[in-house]
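Example record

The entry below shows one chain as it appears in the dataset: sequence first, then structure tokens.
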Amino acid sequence: MSENTEITFLIGEAKNGDVTAQYTLAGLYDSGLVVAKDMGLAAQWYREAAKQDSVEAQARVGEMYLEGQGIKQDYDEAFYWLRLAAGHNNADAIAVMGWSYQNGLGTSQNYKKAFQCYKKAAKLGHAQARYNMGYMYANGLGVQKNDTSAVGWYRKAAKQDNLKAQLNLGLCSLHGTGVAQSDVDAVEWFRKTADKEYAKGQYNLGIMYQQGRGVPKDPKIAADWFKAAAEQGYAQAQYEIGAMYLSGEIVEQDYALAYEWFNKASTSHYYKAQYQIGRFYDQGIVVEADARKAVIWYHAATENDYDKAQYQLGKHYAEGLGVDQDYSVASAWYLNAAMQGYQPAQYHLGVLYGQGKGVEKDYVNSYAWMYVASRGKEKRALEGLSKVTEKLDHLQIIEAESLGRSFFEKYKSQK
């Protein structure tokens, strides 16, 4: 029997009310195997099978109503079918109900109910629910945070080839969270997922080769893994490829390709890529110099509190580049970056305090910020510190040094 004949036969049987044919036909349209993927027809036939008490169909059509897949989103219908399937201990339905409670889909967000659903589904052997149990324990959602329990559930899901669980076990090994720290174990887990073309695993394995953690340092192998993840649309890997073309240390320097990869990463709102595009517009590399557009990109990058972008905004407002000059706004952006330990911002904030621009003139605060910046690589701060000291009397110097040490403990660079 040919494939077309078989499909025609299934359609005929399904129309005649054969529940097995209805469910099988729905699965084919759902997966896109044998026939063209068609979520509308999949939902239609799942619903027909669900009406005839197919528990598996009830679970799937409930999920489709919940997400609006192939059918108009309807939370009441979703929960009606999911509860029917859950009443027969269908693990898929129970897990999806947990997801609904976790994310407040069609119901009030309730982490405790989500946890209970996941727990029930996990006991029935549901791999994704087991991963979700790990996630709930790791983040203290609906249950007391317990990293050891998180790892335990991740391991159970990982044995069922759940890629997210395997990746998280790698991250737990990398950071020593709930398990002994081991770069070698982290690499092993990342490789498991990378070999299955999981983009996040490929990216993390690339990072390990880039940094020489758990494996010999090898930038070229790192680049290969980054590229594999980047071609799947993983923004952080796309950024890394862009950074390689920008620096020219691993591949031949190519600003046009760097811009292209940064632009791809920016479509996923990756803040580091958005910042780099801002720099391209600032410097007129590949694109025509445009400080106004640079500011727009820096603003986008600051949605993630990126210190370098905050600093650039401070600089643009201080100098009136692409925006009206505004020292008050400049000082606010410098402060945001300075509090994250970004030394150029600390230095410039110290300058503004010394000049009384955008902030009230305050030599003690000027000294304190210069002090923090001078403890790092910001060479200009040493000269600035010397100039500010001339403005202070003995008691003020004592106060400024105390404040500087306090700032250093709070806002020293972590990089």
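Notes for this example: The longest helix spans residues 394-411. The chain has a mean pLDDT of 96.
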